[in-house]
Amino acid sequence: MAKNVPNISESEWEIMKVLWENAPLTANEVVEALAKADWKPKTIRTLLDRLTKKKVVGVNKEHRVYSFYPLYAESECQRAEAKSFIDRIYGGTMKSMLAQFIEEDALSEEEMMELRQMLEKKGK
Predict the structure, then answer these.
(1) Which first-to-last residue range defines the signal peptide (predicted)?
(2) Structural domains in the chain?
(3) Radius of gyration of the chain (CA)
(4) Which of 9, 39, 90, 97 is least crowded, fewest Cβ atoms below 10 Å from its Cβ?
C-alpha cells in the first residue's frame, strides 16, 4: 500500500527536485542550487520549513549545520500528484483523461504505440 503523500505546491516541487538530485543538502546549498531561479534565500528557507512541517522533508540535526533530505521518493510524489489531478479534473477516471488526449491528437504515433505496448503488458 502506498504511503499517503502530502500535497506539495509548485514552488515546493522545485525544492524537492533539488533534494532528489543531491540530498542531503544544507539550506545554503539549496539556496545556491536555486540561485538561477532568482528566489530570495528567505523564500527558500520558508519552503524548506513548510516541507519539513508537512513531513515531506526530513532534517538531520546531528551537525551544527542542519541538512535536509526527502522523506518520499520522486515517483511516490509523482503518483500522488497524478492521482490528485485525475480526481480533480477527470472525476477520478483515467479513461476520461486518456480519451481526451487521444481525441485531441495530443499523442504522437510513437506515443500511442508505446501506450498500446504498456496496456498489453499490463493486461497480461
Answers:
(1) none
(2) 10-70 (1.10.10.10), 93-124 (no CATH)
(3) 18
(4) 9
